[in-house]
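Re: Re: ligand-bound prediction request (bumping)

Still looking for help on this. To restate: I need the protein modeled with adenosine-5'-triphosphate bound, output as structure tokens. Inputs repeated here so nobody has to scroll up.
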Amino acid sequence: MKTSADLRKLFLDFFADKGHEVVSSSPLIPANDPTLLFTNAGMVQFKEVFLGQETRKYTRATTTQRCVRAGGKHNDLENVGYTARHHTFFEMLGNFSFGDYFKREAIQYAWEFLTETLQLPAEKLWITVFEEDDEAADIWLKEIGVDASRFSRIGAKDNFWSMGDTGPCGPCSEIFYDHGPEVAGGPPGTPEEDGDRYIEIWNLVFMQFDRSADGTLTPLPKPSVDTGMGLERLAAVLQHKHNNYDIDLFQNLIKAIQKLSGTTDSSNTSLRVIADHIRSCAFMITDGVQPSNEGRGYVLRRIIRRAIRHGHKLGLKEAFFYKLVQPLVDEMGEAFPELTKAQPVVEQALQIEEERFADTLDNGLKILDHAIEEMGDKEIPGETIFLLYDTYGFPIDLTADIARERGLTIDVAGFERHMEAQRNRARSASQFGGGLSETLIIDGETVFCGYDHMRNEGVITALLVDGENVDKLHAG
Ligand code: ATP
Ligand code: MG
Ligand code: MG
Ligand code: MG
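Reply:
Sorry for the wait, this slipped through. Here it is.
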């Protein structure tokens, strides 16, 4: 069996053989990008190189980049526990060309790695290109010889990438793996594609144009390549597992949680959620984030509290989350020595946060259960959400998570009315009535932050980022 560690090495070695410099993962806090909450792709650390603002001694690179998608533009937090393929933390394997090779080599390398190095059968692989990208289509169909029945052209929403409103952009080509007819879901580009049968494993981005403010696309003098493949998704394919949480790396974490909780069913959703969350939380702390009521720290706090609540569901009433750092270090410490180094700091931060929340979680849950029994319809009243938030430290997404599990919805508008009332009370109580802000902008990005923050600061925050609800408070 190929372990996750084997695959990580096979990938990096493959591209090193093709002249790529093996570059270490950068931290989760982007060094030069204040617009970004967390590093969410392999290209982040190379942004300036792609923009031509920085040069390196190499024109080809390969990495396994630690990524978090739990806030801002990419937010997969609500998918964890619901899909087979999404994590808040994952490793993105990538190969990059900085004005060196382009579409032909990028496609050939990807195909060679999958079908020769890893020996995956071609019939299991489905290919998409951007609908207008005839060049990539010709390479796949005529040079590689991919069967047209497993090939499709897709619109810009999924298959055109851009760095921002202006700057480098270009078409993508994605490779999907067919997990077989036992799994529900349709091929890419069909209305049923949201299922988990055809899982996207690799995205090849061809940076081909420079977009100007008026939208004009000018061909880049030296086009580049940026690719990303989820290590966990690849491991699932190679280990003949449909669900990422069934791969070696997650199973070892899940076993550790089972040992602590006595849970026998290894596919229990709470086990999966906790195994996911220990990875994102531990790496965020490793990279310098601490639980707090704002910005990155509040994303971390919210994820920790969700994990603790899932532990509570498994009957874990004592602090347990920090005990998973050791098994995580056993799994990932070799590939990420910074994690091993930070282990004591991570354990301590998690334990403190657990102890702080443990006092109120149990009582808060009792209040919630009582409110659910009392309520006439399927919607948890705003007043309850507010009480849980304000007195028991339940971030609103935690209550939403519980509601979703039970097929209930939450009254967000009612909650916001209570928040507004609280805000007004704070305003009139404050001798400096002004200075309140409706949204909290951290490093140029509006993030959902602690409403309880206002108790101290008189600051209140919004749930919106770029007009998108970052917390997706859906309960259906
Ligand atoms: P999906 O459509 O499945 O959400 P994506 O199109 O958002 O994936 P990309 O932004 O193209 O993903 O990222 C490149 C690769 O990283 C994906 O092909 C996938 O293998 C992996 N990946 C993306 N998001 C996640 C995640 N939340 N957990 C695990 N792997 C991921
Ligand atoms: Mg996605
Ligand atoms: Mg996709
Ligand atoms: Mg993609």
